[in-house]
Amino acid sequence: MQSTLLVLSTICSLASAAIQWGNCSNAIIPLASPKLQCATLSVPLNWSDTSSTNITIGLTRVEAGDTSKRIGSLIFNPGGPGEPASTVLAGQALGFPLFSTNISDVFDLVGFDPRGVGPFSTPVICDPEVFNTRINYYPNSTSQYNDLVTANKAIWQNCHNLTGDLLYNVDTLSVAKDLEALRIALDDGPLNFLGISYGTVIAQTYARLHPSSFRTIAMDAVVDHNISATAQFFDEAQTYEASLHRFASWCSSTNSTFCPLKGKDVISIFNATVANATRSPLPVPGCVNTDPSITGGCFANITAAELISTAQTLLTFKDPNAPVTLGWPALAGALALAAQGNGTAMAQAFAAANLATSNISSLFAGTVIPCLDDYTGINSFADIQYRLRLGEYVAPLTKGISEKWRQQVRCIGFPIPPTYPQTDMSVNNTGKGDKEMLLATSEWDPNVPWLWAEQARSAIGNATLVLREGDGHTSFYLGGKTTRVIEEYFVSGVAPEQGLVVPS
Ligand SMILES: *[C@@H]1O[C@H](CO)[C@@H](O)[C@H](O)[C@H]1NC(C)=O
Ligand SMILES: *[C@@H]1O[C@H](CO)[C@@H](O)[C@H](O)[C@H]1NC(C)=O
Ligand SMILES: *[C@@H]1O[C@H](CO)[C@@H](O)[C@H](O)[C@H]1NC(C)=O
Ligand SMILES: *[C@@H]1O[C@H](CO)[C@@H](O)[C@H](O)[C@H]1NC(C)=O
Ligand SMILES: *[C@@H]1O[C@H](CO)[C@@H](O)[C@H](O)[C@H]1NC(C)=O
Ligand SMILES: *[C@@H]1O[C@H](CO)[C@@H](O)[C@H](O)[C@H]1NC(C)=O
Ligand SMILES: *[C@@H]1O[C@H](CO)[C@@H](O)[C@H](O)[C@H]1NC(C)=O
Ligand SMILES: *[C@@H]1O[C@H](CO)[C@@H](O)[C@H](O)[C@H]1NC(C)=O
Ligand SMILES: *[C@@H]1O[C@H](CO)[C@@H](O)[C@H](O)[C@H]1NC(C)=O
Ligand SMILES: *[C@@H]1O[C@H](CO)[C@@H](O)[C@H](O)[C@H]1NC(C)=O
Ligand SMILES: *[C@@H]1O[C@H](CO)[C@@H](O)[C@H](O)[C@H]1NC(C)=O
Ligand SMILES: *[C@@H]1O[C@H](CO)[C@@H](O)[C@H](O)[C@H]1NC(C)=O
Asked: Hey, what domains does the chain have and what are their CATH numbers?
C-alpha cells in the first residue's frame, strides 16, 4: 500500500513538474506576440521547510528559430535585482531583439520572473503610497536617523501584512534553487545561463550549488557577493565618481553635439547644483502630478541625495537606444535644467526609477532582495556617519550616494536579519568535467566596478574575463564585440583565451 502510494506520488510529482507551455494571457503580458509562450512553475515558498506551501514562478519562452540547429535552452536573468525577464522576451518576440539570430536560432530563450515579481510570479505586495514614503538618504543627525528607521519599519510592516512570509523568502539563494528546479523541469540537459548585473549573483550561487550541472554560464557586469557592505559602498562610490568624470569630459568636449553644457566646466556645474540642493531642495515646477503613486507623478522638490542618485541612474547607457534609453544626452539635459534651478527632469527620472505606481511593483522585490542578501553593518547614526565620511573621501562629488547606498539605507530596520548574507563565492570548477565560465565587464561601469569582476574571476576555478574598453553598465545589451564573444561562447561551449580586451 505504502509503496503504491509512493509510486503514485512520484508519478504525480513528475507529471506536475513538466512545463505546460501555452499562449500568454493579455492580463500578464499585454500585446504578447504569438511567438511568445508562457507557463508557470510551482516551487516551495521556503526551500528549507519540507512543509512549505508552494508559490508560482512565471516563465516565458521564444523557441529556437532553426530547429535543425537547436542546441538547447538558454535561460537568462536581466538583474535588478527583481527585474522580470518576461518584458525582455516579450520585446524579443515582437521584434525588438535583445538576442541576435546567432543565439535565437539555436536556443530556446527562456526567462523567469524571479519569485516575488508580479504579476506573473507570486508577488510581493505593498501599498505604493506607504512604499513611496520619502526616505532621507543622507541622515545628518540622530533624530534624522531615528526618523529613517521608523519610516522603514512602517514600510516593511505594511509589505509583510500584505505579502505574508514570501517577503522574507525572495533571497538570491532561493532564486538559484528555483533556477535548478526550472532546469530540471525543462528536461533539456545541463544549464545554459546568462546573468546580467545582479543576475550574476544568481549565476555564481547556482555554480556553487551545482558545479557540474551547467554547460555554459556567462555573466555580464559582475557583482561580488563576498565583500562587506562598507567595501560595496566604497567600490561603487569610486566607480560612479570615475564615470561621472567620463561623462563630464564627454559633455564639455567640443565633439559633443548632444550636451547643452558643451564647452562648460561640467564638474563645477554638477558640484554647484548639488551644493544648491543641499542648502534647499531644488523646486520641481514641471511635475504635473505630485502624487508619486500615480504614473508620471513625482515629488515637488528634489534633494541633493536624490539628485546624485538620479545622475547615476542616467549614466547607465552612454549611447541613446530608444525606447530602452536616451543615454547620456538625457543626463546632460536634466543636469543643465537643474543647474538653472529646475529639478523637473531629474525628479521625473528619480520617480521612474524609485517610486511604485502599483501594489505589485517589481520595485518591491528589488528593494527587499538586498535586505535578505546583505548585512548593511548599520545599526546606529554613528555607523552612517562613518560610512558617509568615507563616501566624501573616495568620491568628493557624489559622496558615496549610489545604488548600493540607497539599498543599504532602505534596509536599516528591516524586520529580520539577512538569510543569504555575503559569503565565500568560490567555485572550484577545473574544466575537468566541470565547465568553464565567461565573465564580462566594462572598464567604466557607473554601478558595478571592474574590480568585482576581477575578484569573481579569481574566486572561480576556471573563468575567463572579457574587458570592454568603454562606458556604461553592462555590455551584452550593446550588441558590440562583447556581445559576439558571449554569443560564440554559448554556441561553441568554449570560452575565449584569457586576457581578451575588446573596444565595444
Ligand atoms: C494561441 O494563440 C493562437 C494564435 O493567436 C491561436 O490560434 C490558438 O488557438 C491559441 N491557443 C490556445 C490554447 O488558446
Ligand atoms: C511544489 O513544488 C515542488 C518543487 O518544484 C513540486 O515538486 C511540487 O509538485 C509542488 N507542489 C504542488 C502542490 O504543486
Ligand atoms: C525556512 O524554513 C526553515 C526550516 O523550517 C526555517 O529555519 C527558516 O527560518 C525559514 N525561513 C524563513 C525566511 O522563514
Ligand atoms: C549636516 O549638518 C551640518 C550641521 O549640523 C551642516 O553643516 C551640513 O551641511 C549638513 N549636511 C547635509 C548634507 O545636510
Ligand atoms: C499590520 O497588521 C496589523 C495586524 O492586523 C496591524 O495592527 C497593523 O497596523 C498593520 N500595519 C501596517 C503598517 O499596515
Ligand atoms: C574628439 O574627437 C577626436 C577626433 O575624432 C578624438 O580623437 C577625441 O578623442 C575626441 N574627444 C573626446 C573627449 O571624445
Ligand atoms: C565642490 O563644492 C564644494 C563646496 O560646496 C567645494 O568645497 C569643493 O571644492 C567643490 N569641488 C569641486 C571639484 O569643484
Ligand atoms: C522646468 O522644466 C520643465 C521641463 O522639464 C518645463 O516643463 C517647465 O516649464 C520648467 N519650469 C520652469 C519654471 O522653468
Ligand atoms: C519638499 O517637498 C516636501 C514634500 O515631499 C515638503 O514637505 C517640503 O516642504 C518641500 N521642501 C521645500 C524646500 O520646498
Ligand atoms: C546656485 O544657487 C545660486 C544662488 O541661488 C545661483 O545664483 C546659481 O546659479 C546656482 N547654481 C547652480 C549651478 O545651480
Ligand atoms: C573551494 O576550495 C576552497 C579551498 O580548497 C574551499 O575553501 C572552498 O570551500 C571550496 N568551495 C566550494 C564551493 O567547494
Ligand atoms: C578550463 O576549462 C577548459 C574547458 O573545459 C579546459 O580546457 C581548461 O583546461 C580548463 N582550465 C583550467 C585552468 O582548469
From this structure: 2-116+170-219+432-502 (3.40.50.1820), 125-168+227-422 (no CATH)
